[in-house]
Amino acid sequence: MNTLTREDILLQAATRFVCYPLSRVQTIQQSGVLGVEGGIFQAVLRVAACKQPSSDGAQKDHDDENDLKHSKQKRLIAALKKINFSSFWKGFDAHILAILIRLSKIAPRIRSAIFSKLNNSTYLPIIFDPLFTYPFEMARVKLASDMSPQNRNVIQVLSKVIDNTGLAGLFRGYHLHILGIALHQVAYFTGYSLLGSIVPVKKDSFMGALVVSNIASTFSSLFTYPIVTVMRRLQLEAAEDEQKTSSQGTIQTVKNIIQNEGITALYSGFPLLVCHSTLAPLTLMFLDMAYDYISKKFK
């Protein structure tokens, strides 16, 4: 079994940190919290918006209109102060916990110990392994789609889910997660094989492999993205602040999305997913190059 070094984990975490703002805006669109007209621009504005009390010094700066250049600088500074940059990383704690659990390979080890006779099974890892990360992904979705200024953490979200729906609520929509993984793998490897036979890519060409992999991933996401959208809605329902007397099923959730938002809402945030899948490997490559350069420079 391959082991990851501390450098690998650090680079993975740094890459996720750089790309997470895209992931949060995409989650907001996919969750439908902004309604039908919740485009990318509106989602970014809502995330960046932050109500801050204006100080007397800031008000005094606006009174100085003598120097135009000075006034523009003050207005720019005042505008930047209103942007809540940290809110773009809301839910990152839950995201990084899920990543660390996945990188630690706890699930494969427990699976091998419990199901030792089924170690060669193709489907068991797809069904069993996500059990350890799914609750944290649910918490990330809730935190990332939460537009309120409240500062919540993973424990608070998971506790709310358990209070509302019990332990089973932590795995609400899990069947769609498994279906999405299985369908994504089939579509991805099919698309990758077809592209590999059509597009000539050199074995040592990183960019060529990246382009083919990204196209295959986008192709497979076309089939799985609506499934993930419905799963996100089910997760949010389980994590709602107010407990409901009855919960919606998968079919009813699909009907509500199509009736209230239109069928295109099943693909809300899809362009940002494509951008994220392209940016992440490039970011990892540049961070790896920077780390190697710094290591050699100060060795």
Automatic annotation (TrEMBL):
The keyword Repeat applies. Pfam families: Mito_carr. One of its GO terms (biological process) is transmembrane transport. PROSITE patterns: SOLCAR. InterPro entries: MCP (IPR002067), MCP_dom_sf (IPR023395), MCP_transmembrane (IPR018108). Solcar repeats lie at residues 111-198, 204-293. Keywords: Membrane, Repeat, Transmembrane, Transmembrane helix, Transport. GO terms for cellular component: membrane. Belongs to the mitochondrial carrier (TC 2.A.29) family. This is Uncharacterized protein. It comes from Naegleria fowleri (Brain eating amoeba). The lineage of its organism: Eukaryota, Discoba, Heterolobosea, Tetramitia, Eutetramitia.
